[in-house]
Amino acid sequence: MTDSLPNAADVTALHDRLLATAGWPTVEPAAPDDGLWQWVQTNHAFNCRLWAEEDLARRTQVSDAEIAANKRAIDRYNQARNDATERVDEILLVALGLVDAQSACTDAPVSTVGPGARLNSETAGSMIDRLSIMALKVHAMRAQTLRTDVDADHVAASQVKLGRLQQQRTDLAACLDALLADARAGHAYFKVYRQFKMYNDPRFNPALVAERAGKAG
Fold first, then answer.
1. Which residues fall within 8 angstroms of residue 18, CB to CB, at 6 or more apart?
2. Distance CA 3, CA 96 (A)
3. How far is the C-alpha of 101 from the C-alpha of 174, rounded, in Å?
4. Which residues are paired to 151 by β-bridges?
5. Using CA atoms, how far apart are residues 107 and 194, in angstroms rounded to an integer?
6. Which helix or strand (DSSP H or E) is residue 188 part of?
7. pTM to 2 decimals?
8. Which of 124, 147, 156, 213 is deepest in the core (most CB within 10 A)?
9. Mean pLDDT by 10-residue block, N- to C-terminus, for the chain (217 residues)?
């Protein structure tokens, strides 16, 4: 199953291709498959929606109600983005034979890691998530270099920052490939780390618990 593992070049190419797609992410083209790549694309879509909402939430000349709507959308999209990241990790770990397939989607995945492998603190899914964000940063900074309503200093500074962002993405992509290669060889592994974002769960968020208790009273 390890033949189905992605490489970072394909991941970054997908991110860039989607960002260049008209109407993205409102209009989502079909993913390369309905498994790993579907979830990579889903993660990227929610990162794009988050990016747009974060910009809107910084507005200063709109009503408080509009900003509140942006903040609530940010919570929803962030949860969905994290869910997709965890799904990517589940699929990769099963493909690598590092987790019991039946338990991979549970809160307590059963590891099948061989002896001697080192635990990597960052998961492959979280690195793909970070590559998605890097793609957005590169895309946005490149747009700054093409602006005609700013002075030459702004364009020049943006070009310098664009180069740095591209180098950061190249470095991260190499780290992803290295982790997957080490995991395939039995030298490294990672785990599915559940985020358990308590603020989105009315059972755990103390403010929401208090609201419900007040209504019940």
1. 24, 25, 29, 41, 44, 45, 48
2. 9
3. 27
4. none
5. 7
6. strand 188-189
7. 0.89
8. 124
9. 78 97 88 88 97 95 96 94 95 94 88 93 97 98 97 98 98 98 96 74 74 74
